[in-house]
Automatic annotation (TrEMBL):
Gene Ontology molecular function terms on file: phosphorelay sensor kinase activity
Coiled coil: none
Transmembrane segments: 197-218, 225-245, 265-281, 293-311, 317-339, 351-370
Record keywords, A-Z: Membrane, Phosphoprotein, Signal, Transmembrane, Transmembrane helix, Two-component regulatory system
Protein name: histidine kinase
Catalytic activity from the UniProt record: ATP + protein L-histidine = ADP + protein N-phospho-L-histidine
Phosphohistidine carried by residues: H848
Enzyme Commission code(s) on record: 2.7.13.3
Signal peptide feature range: 1-25
Entries under InterPro entries matching the protein: 7TMR_DISM_rcpt_extracell_dom1, CheY-like_superfamily, Galactose-bd-like_sf, HATPase_C_sf, HATPase_dom, His_kinase_dom, HisK_dim/P_dom, HisK_dim/P_sf
Cited CDD domains: HisKA, REC_hyHK_CKI1_RcsC-like
Domain Response regulatory: 662-781
Keyword Transport: no
Amino acid sequence: MSFGRGLLASFLALLFLLAAGPAAADHTLPAAMAGRLELAWVPDEPLPLQGEWGFAWHRFVDPHWQGLPTSAFAPVPSSWNDLTVDGKPPGENGWGTYALQVDCPAGRSLAVEVNGQRTASRLYINGEEVAAHGEPGPDRERSWPAVYSRVPVTRVFACPLRLTLHISNFDHRAGGFVRPMMVGTVDVLERARERRIIYDTVLLAAYLITGGLSLIFFTVRRREMAPLVFGLFCVCMAIYTDMIGERLFLRFFGPQVAWYPYMRVEYLSWIASMALFFLTLRGLFPAEIHRRAVQLVLAGLGLGAVAVLALRPGQYSYVVVPGQAIAVIVAIYIAVAMVRAGRSARTDARVLLAGMLAIFAALVADLLLIDAPGPDKKFAPIGFALFMLSPAVVIARRLTKALNAEERSRTLEENARLREDVERMSRHDLKTPLNSILGAARLLRDEDRLTADQRELVGVLQRAALRMLEMVNLSLGLFKMETGNYDLRAQPVDLRQVVTRVLVDLHPFADANAVTLFSQGSGHAPIYVRGEELLCYSIIANLVKNAVEAAGPGKRVSLALAGGDPVTVTVHNPGQVPPEIAAQFFEKYVTSGKSGGTGLGTYSARLMARAQQGELAMRTDPAEGTTLTLTLPPLKGEPPAPLPMLPIDQPALALDGVPPRTVLLVDDDEFMRLVTRRLLPSPPFTVETAANGQAAVESMGRHWPDFLLLDMEMPLRSGVDTVRWVREQEAVHGRPRCAVVMLSGNDDEASTARALQAGADRFLVKPVSREHLLATLRELEAGLPPSEADGLAIPPHEPARPADEIVVVDPEWVEFFPDLMSYQRDTVEAMARALAAGDREDLQFLAHRAKGGLATMGLEWAARQSRLLERDALTAPATELEHIIAAMREHLVRVRLESK
C-alpha cells in the first residue's frame, strides 16, 4: 500500500471510531422520564442528568416545590430552538424553567456539578440556590449572562433531589439547557474535576512552553519568521483550550466573568489560532501551500474576526458552523499538499502529515458534534496538541541545519579578508574584458559606414556588456537581500523578453552539453511583472543553466511562461534531485555532483525572487523529473508604451590646436589596448603600446613620451610602481615631465588616492568614453587643473554646484535607460530615509551604488557628492550629511538629459 493510501485508510478508521464511539456509550446511562430520574444506586462515576425534564415557558417557578411544578417536558441536554411545548414558539430567544426530581436511595446524600449554560442561569436544589451564572431575566435588558470562573460542585443534599434551573437566552444561536449537569458523591465529582484540571494543565503547559521557546528563539534569531508565527499559534491555542475547558486563566478574575468579553476571547483566539496555523505551514512549505489559498483563508477568518468585534454573541455565534467547515476544508487541502510532498521522500512533509491526521480527525469530529447535546468538550485542542509536535520537529530540524550553516559561516568569516581580496581581484579581472567589449562597441558605434542592421547588432552587443557589468556588481545587492535590507527598484519588466534573451544567451551552452532547449507555448504578447530586469534575468538564467547541467546529453529542458496572478515561469528537466539534497535544495552551500560548485546558485536565485515579492519552488520525482517554478507579482495597470528609437550621432572630437604628441599606452589586456588606442585619433597622437609596467619602463628608456596612459593593476610591475619610477627618473635624471593618466576598473577612494599619491596627474575609471579621455588630455596639454570630468577624486573643498539644468550624455543612455534619472532621484530619497533611520551602513551602500551611475551619465558633481557621502557616512555629523543629500536632491530635480 502506498504512503498516501495508508494515511487515508488510517484517517477513515479514526473518523469511524470518533463518530460511532459517543453514540454507543449513551445507551447505557439512565435517563429521566416525565421529569423524574429513578436512581437505584449511588454512582461511582459522575452521572449526567439527562432525559426529560419538566419545562415551563416564560415562567420562573418557585424552587421550593414538592411536586413537579410543570406539565410540559423538554429533552436535556439540547437546545430549545425547535421546542414547541408549553406555548413556546420556535426560536432561540426567551426564558423559562427546567425542573427534575432525582429519586436516589433514601438516607444517602449527593452533590451536583453545575455546568453553566450558554447564557444566563441559576440552579436551585431543594429550594436552595447553589450556583449562578449571571442573572436570568424575562428580556434582554434584565438578563445578564456570565461564566463562572470554574465549574462549581455543590454541597451535598439528602435524597431525593429537587432541581430547579431558571434560564434565559438572548445572546446565543442555541438556547436552552445545552450542557448536562453531573450528579454523584462529592468525592467522585472532585476526583473527576481534578483529572480534568490535570489534563488541561498539562495541555496548557505543553502549548505555553513550546510557544515560549519558539518566541525566545525568534528574539535571538529574527531572520527566522516560522518560530514567531508558531509561537503565537501555541499561545492562541492555549487561550482557546482554556476557555472551553477548566478556565484556569479565569481564576485570576472574580467568580463570575461577563459573557460578552469571554465569548470574544474564545472566538478570537480560535480564529487567530487557525490563521497562525495556516501561516505556520505556509512558512514551512511555501511551495506546497499556495499564496492564493492562504489569502482566501485569511480573508474568511478576517471577516469572522470583524463580525466578532462588531456584532453581539447572538449574531456572530452563527460563524461557528461555517468556521468549522473552513477548518475541515483547510485540513483537507493541507493533507493533500503534504501527501504530494511526501511522495518526494520529504521527511518534513511526512512528519507534518502525522500531526495533520490528528487535526483532521479532531476537526471533523467537532463538526459532527458541534450541536450534539453533551458537555462543552472539543476535540480540536487535542488534535492541535498532537499536531503541535509535528511543526516543532520540522522547525527544530531546519533550525539545526541553519545553526550548522551559521557555524560554517563563522569558520568562513575567519578568512574574510582573504575572501574580500579574492573577490576584488575577480571583479577586476572580469571588468577588464567587459570594459574592452564596451569600448569596442562604442568605437563601432562611431563608424559612419555602418548599416542600420549593423548598428542594431552593436546596440545588442553594448547592452549585453552593460548587463554583464551589472551582474558582476550584483553580489553587493545579494548581501542586502540576505540581510533583508535590499531596496527594490521595481519597474515594469517584460518577462517574455527576458525569457527569450535567456534562451538565446544559453543556446550555445546547451548545444555544448548536447541538450535541447524547448520553449513551451507560442505566445508573443508581452507579459509584464513588477520587478528588476537584471534580477529576473539572473534567476531564469540560473535555473536554465542548472537544468541543462542536470539533464544530461540527449535530453530536453523545457521552459514555460504563463501570465496571471502571479506570473509563473517553470523550468523542467527529466532528472531527479537526489533525496538527500531535495529537502535542502535552496539552502546555502548545498551542492551535489558539480565540480567546484559553491552551493549558492539556487540560494541566491530564491533570494532574488523573494526580494521582488515572488517565490521560487522546486518539485522533483523519479518519474516526472524536476520542475522549478518562479512566481512573480504581475504589473498592475496599463503596460508601458514602447520607447522610440533615438538616432545615434557622431561624437565631436574638437581637437583643434592640439600639437602632435606621443602617447605610451600600457595595459595587460590586449583588447583594452586595442580599444583605448582606437580612442586616440592620429593626428595629433602617435600611440605606442606596452603589455605591462616592465615593458613600459623599457619602452620609455628608448623614447620618452609626452603622455603615459596605464592600467593600475598589471603583472611584473604595477601601474603605481611604474608611475613612481617615472617621477623618480624625472627628478634624478632630468627627464621632461610626462603627463600620467591612471586607468582602472576600481572606482573606490583607496585606488584613487594610491594613484594620485604615486604621482599620477589624473585617475579615470574604466570604461572611459572617448570624449572624457580626450578632454583630460586637452587639460593636461594646457596645464589646467583637474575638471569635474576627471575621475572621481575628492577635492579638498566642495566644488560649486553646476547651474546647468541640461546635461548632455551619450545617446545610448537616453535610449536604453530612459528612467535612469528617476532611479537616481529615488536613490537620493533612499539615502535620506537611511540617514533619518540612523542606518549609516545602508547610507554608505546607497552612496557607493549611486556614484558609478552618476559618473557614467556625466553627472560628475553629483557623483562627487555620492563619493563624499560614501567616505563620511559612518563618521560625519548628521547635519553635514543632510546638507549634502539636500543639495543632491535639489540638483537632480533640475537635471534634464539630452543626447548629443
